[in-house]
Prior knowledge:
By secondary structure, this protein is of the alpha+beta class. It contains 15 helices and 16 strands.
Amino acid sequence: MTETQMMALLPTGLADVLPPDATFEAATLAQLMAAFAGYGYERIKPPLIEFEDGLLAGLGTAMASQTFRLMDPVSQRMMGVRADMTPQVARIASTRLKNVARPLRLSYSGDVLRVKGTQLRPERQFTQVGVEIIGTDRAQADAEVILMAIQSLRDLGVDGLSVDLAIPTLVPALCKEFKITGDAEIKMRLALDRKDAASITELAKNIGTNNAAMLSALLNAAGPAERTLTALHKMTFGPDAARERAILTDVANRVRAAAPDIQLTIDPVENRGFEYHSGVTFTFFARGVRGELGNGGRYLAENGTEHGEPATGLTLFMDTILRALPRPQAQERIYLCFGISESAADTLRGDGWITISGLEQSEDPEAEAQRLRCTHIFIDDKIKKLKRELEG
């Protein structure tokens, strides 16, 4: 490997973003942030690195194993590089913005860094863009975030969009009602996570035949929203589980009413990736695109109280979103021959042209324009389109 190749080598999961992709990502991100602003979400900008004890407290506990750590040479305290931005937003809401009227609507964007990638997302550094609505437990807030994401993604041009709802608090409520604890609960939850109906049946002797049958029915109920809700409402739940079912039903019905053409599915036992969530969760996919476009759900934001502050959030992943969009078309660039006046150049830029100025006299301006990947040339006070054989 040459010295140049060694210099270009990056750690696993990290990559340079080059033209035109970097420009396309920035423009897409700006469009998303503008869309969120239109719904009243105000932008904040948390730091990339925080003290470890603050970054990994509360919601941040779930990201502890994915967080890079380093020593602050100034304070001699350990710091962490953020692996997710939601805990930072919750911290800001509960401290610097604690006296701002609720519900508090915040938006954000920025890069995160994780210790390891996953099979679906091998990238360790990627850009998050998202929103949080803090200080309300109303189903309307969950529906607002979901519908805003649907509209924003559609406006970008994402096709084949689908949303998967889950309620990770339902199974714990059933465990409490069924008095399933200890090793039996661990095995049962593991079987549900793996979608392993056979293991649920085998656990009947430990958790009860009727209980195992209901959990198997829950597992089999996953699918299109209407079918899943019908199945759930045929089941007899105790008050806690019934309350979780009612919340899920309320959110699903609001989404279906406002976006009847969206592909909406429900998995009533899904829990993986939603460890700190306290209500309805949601995941966005696009047909034929690897990985999640984004996910989110209800949680309790730390606010110094025992129970925390009700909140709902959404995080979109820019790398996946860009894979779901058509490749950007090459922009038209106009070559300005050496000596063109600044006033003429300003006029062209004012008309929307990307101008590439010649920095020295060229014997063949059109060839120079080709070398610099221009589509047009400004010569003799006229705009001339380069012939196809001269285009880069």
